[in-house]
Request: fold
Amino acid sequence: MLMRRLYPEPAPNVDVADAYTVRTGAGRHLRVNMVSSADGAATVDRRVGALSGPADQELLHLLRGLCDVLLVGAGTVRAEGYGPLDLPEEARRRRTESGQLPVPRMAILTREITLDLDAPVFTSATDRPVVLTTERAPVERRTAAAEVADVVVVGEQQVDLPRALDALVERGLSRILSEGGPHVLAELLAAGLVDELCLAIAPLVTCGAETRITAGPALATPMQLTLAQVLEQDEFLFLRYTR
Reply:
């Protein structure tokens, strides 16, 4: 997949896989991938799909192919109808040769396991998803979830995000990709856990009062990011920020 690079050094054709590679041995790395309209909306009618396009979708699948685990909130799983993660055979081969699982695992953040455990995201997964939950989740829900996922309790009333990420790393899943949603991203940022923010800007204006890419209390001090890269394809801008 090739894109035009606008920053830092303009170039007409850049291999996106190289542009987004995270070097091995770097320890835990949490990358967040989100999309927004030009006026800041993260959804249209509460769904992300209307903001997306072919280039954005191709990048989404590429980033999934680079990670060890996809971290998402239960609300996003429900709203976007997540299914099992899958990759083309060539991508599976490259991952296996580099020591990764053929397909990334799914990790779902949920306080009370309010999930459809009969959904394909569980029943058709190549590897069992990881459910990161709390002590407030009813025992019967934890027991039922353990039939189709690895259930890890990381908190009493709220998911302890540092402990959740540590639990993933302990399972050999150090390259973490999150696709939100907005509440999860706000909590990850507030906890200082995000290493990289990948933001696609769609060439759309929505107006209205749609959700932003973050939904949570304001940070006590705004977080300074460094613009590392800007790519362009099909009038979408693909921004890559680092901390």
In short: Residues 71-174 form a domain with the Dihydrofolate Reductase, subunit A fold (CATH 3.40.430.10).
